[in-house]
Design brief:
Layout lengths: L1 E5 L5 H10 L7 E2 L2 E5 L2 H10 L7 E8 L3 H9 L12 E9 L6 H20 L10 E9 L2 E7 L21 H9 L9 E3 L6 H11 L21 H11 L9 E5 L2 H14 L6 E4 L13 E4 L9 H16 L5 E6 L4 H5 L5 E7 L2 E8 L14
Parallel strand pairs: 5-6, 8-9, 8-11, 9-10, 11-12
Antiparallel strand pairs: 1-3, 1-4, 2-3, 4-7, 6-7, 12-14, 13-14
Helix pairs in contact: 2-7, 3-4, 5-6, 6-8
Length: 380
């Protein structure tokens, strides 16, 4: 079966690296979707273990769809009775671009009608009550070619299950995981987030270091489908649990100037099972210092929703000064502030565009001194 993994813009490389570390080889990425071959065991494994991917889609068919008739016929040819029951709650999620068919709502209506007609004919029923398991059908029409998939995840994979309370401008868990994965963070290095907010980055860093599967605490739509093996998810969770790191971790620090944010961060870390791995504190970023060598700062500082230009510029300038007082540390931060690089100062080593909550942001990477005899490795 072909599997597609959608990823936010700028995050595809992190998804590909994790897939490579999981033994899937060099998987191609096209139009923000990473493609690979697999079976139901892989569907379960990917849903449980992927850190930066947004969903796991199972491709059912790809066919020309220059008009509604062709779309209806192509969808009707799919053996929906193998995946759905008379009680399936069938929902649409689609995109149309660079095609004759550009009305997503109308195209979704055609897809839904074709599925319902096929199911009624093949299952021998007059109606579908749609009061049972959820089945989200993903259709993507690009240059008059339709790709029809099933969304095996249900809720997006960024919904790990630990973040249940909201805070201002939350960072997606998948984006935070990509920031951690693509940084200089290695086993054995101290870590700090000096703008921790509700704790997403430090929690993802601790999960990464412990090799705790991000999907450990949640369910997925496919586990309720009649076509999926009953033991696939249990086996995937067992494999993930076997790979967890149980020993002590290096120092992980998380701080914020807001007492409410730190309280939320502690709560979320505890729900994720890593509350004892992170040292939280209420502290102004400017006060951060460390005697530890070769650490990594990974943060998501304010972008400017509540601060004017003068205040933002001063904040990023002080952030840069604080960082440069730690000469052997590295720093990675995400921001949509247009003058972030100039205000932060220093020589940036790498910049990458990342989409975060529909905002076009830049991931800035500043490399510190590399330790001698550095034999540390990234964690998958």
């Amino acid at each position: 079966m072909q599997i597609l993994i959608p990823a936010a813009a700028g995050v595809e490389a992190s998804v590909k690296r994790q897939l490579r570390s999981m033994g899937y080889g060099d998987c191609p990425a096209v139009q923000g979707r990473v493609s690979l071959a697999g079976d139901w065991a892989d569907v379960a494994r990917l849903n449980v273990q992927l850190r930066a991917g947004e969903r796991v889609l199972l491709v059912l068919s790809r066919f020309p769809a220059p008009d509604f008739d062709a779309l209806f016929e192509g969808v009707s040819a799919i053996a929906w009775e193998e995946f759905c029951s008379p009680h399936s709650q069938i929902m649409m999620d689609g995109k149309c671009y660079a095609s004759t068919l550009m009305a997503v709502k109308a195209a979704g209506g055609v897809v839904k009608k074709a599925i319902v007609e096929r199911l009624k004919n093949r299952l021998g029923v007059h109606t579908l009550d749609e009061c049972g398991e959820r089945v989200v059908v993903n259709f993507d029409i690009y240059e008059n070619v339709a790709t029809v998939s099933l969304d095996t995840s249900g809720d997006g994979l960024h919904k790990r299950g630990y973040r249940v309370r909201t805070y201002d401008a939350p960072l997606r868990e998948t984006t935070a995981a990509a920031m951690v994965e693509s940084s200089f963070f290695r086993a054995g290095k101290p870590f700090a987030d000096v703008f921790c907010g509700s704790g997403t980055i430090p929690v993802e860093a601790a999960l990464y270091m412990r090799r705790i599967a991000p999907g450990k605490l949640r369910g997925f739509d496919f586990e309720k489908w009649k076509c999926a093996p009953r033991d696939a998810l249990a086996r995937a969770r067992e494999e993930a649990a076997d790979g967890e790191v149980r020993g002590p971790l290096p120092q992980l620090e998380a701080s914020d100037i807001s007492p409410r944010a730190v309280e939320l961060a502690r709560f979320h870390a505890a729900r994720a099972g890593v509350g004892g791995d992170i040292r939280f504190s209420v502290r102004d970023m400017r006060a951060f210092t460390s005697s530890e060598p070769f650490g990594v700062i990974i943060s998501n500082p304010p972008y400017g929703e509540r601060l004017k230009e003068e205040g933002l510029s001063a904040l990023y300038r002080d952030f840069g000064r604080m960082y440069r007082a730690l000469p052997d540390w590295s720093c990675v931060f995400l921001s949509s502030y247009v003058n972030a690089e100039r205000a932060f100062g220093g020589n940036v080593n790498k910049k990458r565009r990342i989409c975060n909550a529909k905002l076009t942001c830049t991931l800035f990477t500043y490399a510190g001194k590399k330790p001698e005899n550095d034999n540390s490795k990234k964690i998958s």
